[in-house]
Every structure is written in structure tokens, then in C-alpha cells.
TrEMBL record:
This is LysR family transcriptional regulator. It comes from Fervidicoccus fontis. InterPro entries: LysR_HTH_N, Molybdate_resp_trans_reg, WH-like_DNA-bd_sf, WH_DNA-bd_sf. Residues 35-92 form the HTH lysR-type domain. GO terms for molecular function: DNA-binding transcription factor activity.
Length: 111
């Protein structure tokens, strides 16, 4: 998420707000990971989520695996029986925290 606030002197300064979700002080992910998890939650498919976001499957898989390594918890789980993926409890929590912060920033007019 990026927000540009325009100052009186537009050539000198601007500001940017980016939401980064951390675990034990380590940045786990931000907007891209939140969007990927949201798409997985909606579609139940990593391949479909990656395609919708314009990235290949391997890149999406690595994004999730890197975030899981940083958080030291699984963010997605294989769906039993039908295949595909669902968010783990930790993945749901990541997305909940991201969306809560995003909503508060929108309410304040920052994004």
C-alpha cells in the first residue's frame, strides 16, 4: 500500500505509508502477500491466485514460503480431499491484521 501526500512544494517532499506486518520484530510481508492470501482465500487455488495477480505459480509459492520462514508458521495449508489451498489460522490472522490496519488508515483519510 502506498500513499503519497502532497506538500506545498511538490518538488521537495512527499510521504509514503506502507503497511508491513511483523512477527517478533521481523517483517513477514505487506500488500503483495496480503493480496495473495486474499486471492487464495477466495479461489482456494494458489495457481488461480497467482494468475489473477499476474505472477507465475513459482513466484507466488516462493513468496508464501519466504513469509512462512520469517514468521515460523504456516500461512496456507493443502485442502484435504478436493485439493487446492486454504489459509491456516496464522494466514487468516495475518490477513485480518493487515485488513484492520488498512481499514483504519482509510478511515483516517491516509489512503
Amino acid at each position: 500500500m502506498q500513499v503519497i501526500l502532497i506538500s506545498e512544494n511538490r518538488n521537495l517532499f512527499d510521504a509514503k505509508i506502507e503497511i508491513l506486518i511483523t512477527s517478533k520484530g521481523i517483517v513477514v510481508g505487506g500488500k503483495g502477500l496480503a493480496e495473495l492470501l486474499r486471492e487464495i482465500e477466495e479461489s482456494g487455488s494458489l495457481r488461480s491466485a497467482a494468475k489473477k495477480m499476474g505472477m507465475n505459480y513459482k513466484r507466488a509459492w516462493l513468496k508464501i514460503k519466504m513469509a512462512e520462514a520469517k514468521a515460523m508458521v504456516p500461512l496456507v495449508e493443502r485442502r484435504r480431499g478436493r485439493g487446492g489451498y486454504v489459509l491456516s489460522d496464522e494466514g487468516k490472522e495475518f490477513l485480518r491484521v493487515y485488513e484492520e490496519v488498512e481499514s483504519k488508515l482509510k478511515d483516517c483519510g491516509f489512503i
